[in-house]
Design brief:
Keywords: Oxidoreductase. The chain has 181 residues and is α/β, with parallel strands linked by helices. 37% of the residues lie in helices and 14% in strands. It has a single domain (3-178), classed as Flavodoxin domain (Rossmann fold, 3-Layer(aba) Sandwich), CATH 3.40.50.360.
């Protein structure tokens, strides 16, 4: 069994990023332990707080450390990842030399209500994960465009092809992550 952490880059309630993440998770093995890790309460990273970290930093670092693999789903904010997601990456990579991300396999998905599907945010996130030493699944590439049309008011996929595609990505990720056990 693997512990899968899910980091949703949107802090909005009922976000499309969360909907995409939940659809991906449905493809993981039945015995997978899945934890959606909260990032909305993290104070902005400040190196001065490395010595006496806020409880939110400590909680987040411990939750990240307990995971074997990660699913990241990000919206695109001004052609980049959200500030909350960038902050979360920074908090768990510090203090210097004590990153809890290293070596953990990752899946990256981006979504947007536009047709460009968050492609720039996707690649910016991948670039950060390279620095954090997280092997990242390359295929399939999960650029989810027009997300407002792919999910209903309950954030369920509106069609079988979306549902099947995202679940199959989750299955493929479980196979990819198993290589790093």
């Amino acid at each position: 069994m693997k512990n899968y952490g899910v980091i949703v880059g949107s802090t909005r309630k009922n976000s499309y990023s969360e909907a995409v993440a939940k659809a991906i998770v449905k493809g993981l093995p039945e015995d997978a332990k899945v934890t959606f890790i909260k990032i909305s309460d993290l104070p902005l990273y400040n190196q001065d707080l490395d010595v006496d970290s806020p409880v939110e930093y400590t909680r987040f670092r411990e939750e990240v450390a307990a995971q074997d693999a990660f699913i990241f789903v990000t919206p695109e904010h001004n052609r980049s990842i959200s500030a909350a997601l960038k902050n979360a990456l920074d908090v768990a990579s510090r203090p210097w030399g004590q990153s809890v991300w290293a070596g953990k396999p990752a899946l990256v998905a981006s979504q947007s209500i536009s047709g460009i599907s968050g492609v720039l945010a996707h690649h910016i996130l991948r670039q950060s994960l390279v620095f954090l030493d997280m092997p990242t699944m390359q295929q399939p590439e999960l650029y989810i465009g027009h997300s407002d049309q792919l999910f209903d008011e309950n954030l369920e996929p509106t069609n079988d092809s979306t549902k099947e595609f995202l679940a199959s990505a989750g299955k493929q990720f479980s196979e990819f992550a198993a290589k790093f056990a």
